[in-house]
């Protein structure tokens, strides 16, 4: 037989063996079904950046093709190891290798057959996307959400992403198996590839260190694809192919061509002897004389009856043997070392060296960060190691010997389960140990071993145990190792991706997903203690049930008849297995009932579909009834009993007028209306969809207006499925006005913007917002008026009262902690936890500097009496009344230097300017809010950074803001349109500040007063801005997003400024050719950044001007890093 014939014959035989193994069918059904299930989930598609594009768009094809390689790494490892191990497992390798055939041709043929099987495995994703239109035909997705198959993108993904990776990485698996003669070598290499992916994604990409190196080192190419796609517009996501950049080509060469070259070189020099002979025995064993080796010790027999066996001791010995085998493995220690090094490096990159930092590595910041960075890798390692533990002692005939012993059937599975549990706990502790090490090195004062230990054991270990024991059950069910490994990796992949994308948002359904919580140094573990114990108990009960199920279904002997299996299960239930299963079932029922009652009944859990359905019903019911309303003022009285977790409210409003005769209000969570009276008479108010409507009667249209009195009770939310901290806890409370009282008016953010959602719930195609005069006040519960408020805290024994009054919109914030710490910086009182005493003086200094800047630029600024540290996750930086609320993330997490401090100053100045502008304009949360509250206030924050820190700091802040804007525009969960229609939280709050920078820098205090005065008089924003800046400028400011890119071109005359401009239209950027280029130069003189006109060219190269070049067009600039002229001069420290 010729070498070519042998090659083809072996390739066909290997392909048939792979198809008969069951792996191809399993992967095809599993991956294809999983992909189609994901495409039916709108939340999943949005998380993948699929807003305003088809669900089978090219961008989703690229992300899924590269993302699913995490599972394919392990499936390929099994497929490419089998051609070299199949003969050895049957003890036929010596016979096969002694045949007089060409050995390289035989090995190449088997590799080609395995490569064909690997290509079929990868094709499951392509088949899934080809079958996606079936979802539309069956009505499982909204009409029009699935487009025709994008054949160019599918061919590109298979030919450039999947096939090269599968073949090249398969060659590496083939090489390592040739060397180790064990499937453990291939699985060890797959684990190493996962660690390499983690290094590329978490360290290089996440730390913005080297995008080219990240693209090259990532074997899946996910890093490159994700980086490109997150900057694409919806139009590009729907049509574009991944660009063939040097990083892309180099990656395919490193992971596709280079491994094949190494394989060719290795197979050219392989010898039969090296594949047949086993490794040499250790010298110590070889030195033992033959006589001594064959000597059998004497066995002493006793005629006494055999004592009862101590199966508990046997269980311990079996567990000890499993753990000892693990500890003796060099691969285990090497993997632990590499993973620990990755954790430490990730802590530095995402903490101390963060691009928005440096950040202070306190436990409440570092522990969640390392959990997110390492969870994926640890989950796959546990799934692989679980199979290794289960099948370590699987030798032909060994199981039959154990089945014949009188030992109970639960003995070995229980020992394996204990080994898996110990291994999982050790791996889950690694990120915590890395966090402790980094904190001890960088911030020893914040070191807290108990926080690290509790976080790893209570947050990270239970879901990892679930994943490990799911794999444990799979290996118990499947006798064939290949099918078991593939199925366990597929299930782990599905569960982990569910964690990454939040496909299941109810905690009881989130198997293998850590609990969502916002760890805070201010409130500690107290808000989460009961929830954590209940949910961890539920997860541990599920783990116990998985172990019991694994023992019940474990096959014994060779009789596989159903009747025998049922009899074995019945017998096993009468022993310890039945006890374990009963305890687990009782725990699941009891804790599941408790969690369900707390999360839904008291925690206010609602799935996204229900929220959207209620918002659609709210829009149909109330939006048409929206009308202008005014209030002269009133008196709000709140009584809070922290021990009883109950708040009582009474609000008297004077001079209430409404055009339609009814007053609308949005309600906080837990609100229960007790009474509503109008001019002393009780009225029947309607409460529906978290909305209150009070009929006012005839007084609503008369000059004096109505006197309205509302009384209510409110129970703060209990356990939160989303990890949202409650404002009331055991360690204190952090109350804002909108948490305790209704917000007068209608909330425009509740209007559904997505066209698909509007069709689904029977709404009109166009989203219509309520009029500004009918909307809720911005950052307040009531518009401008004469207001008094008071909060009485305490029960029947002792009380404390906090009160205030205002002539503007009604808003306030009150914080109280059981163990308060205060720092005084001038007239400012700073309230914080004990860990942040060192940060308080720097924050106080920043607030004073930003107050002076806002006062200079606006002419007025709100009074700040108190700066309150706010728990993580409880809102944005805001000046509410006289209290400046600064959440822990990111204001208290950054050090007092670098880009992080400049960004903190920008946020503080924006909060101060936002409150001053909102009060002056009596701002409502409508069409004006995004431009004035986010745009002008954010631009003032940036300009104050330039005033205080210099142009270089301003440039760095612009770079970070520009990067964020590009990302949020591409990943917006609603279609991007006009700024006036944007939600208050979303892409507008990042884009608006950059687009308004030029306009804001040109205004004087009297100009701001003129605009806010007109807005307070309810002049539409478009008209007020058109009167001030011109109709075209107003249309550009308030329309769809604009982008520009400036560059300096050298020519014979010196330096020419070139501008490229784009306008957002139809889901993407379109070149704008109808604008006349004008340029500005930001310069800094005497500690103030000023704006001046810039010429379109300079006579020298580089230009002989100092400053930061801007486009006068109201756009965000894509490349602010290239626009600082004479940076060596402009970067000098401020005088």
Automatic annotation (TrEMBL):
Q: Which domain of life is it from?
A: Bacteria
Residues annotated as coiled-coil are none
Key words of the record: Membrane, Transmembrane, Transmembrane helix
> What residues form the membrane-spanning segments?
21-40, 60-80, 115-141, 153-176, 182-204, 249-267, 332-353, 373-390, 418-447, 453-474, 481-499, 530-554, 575-595
This protein's name: ABC transporter permease
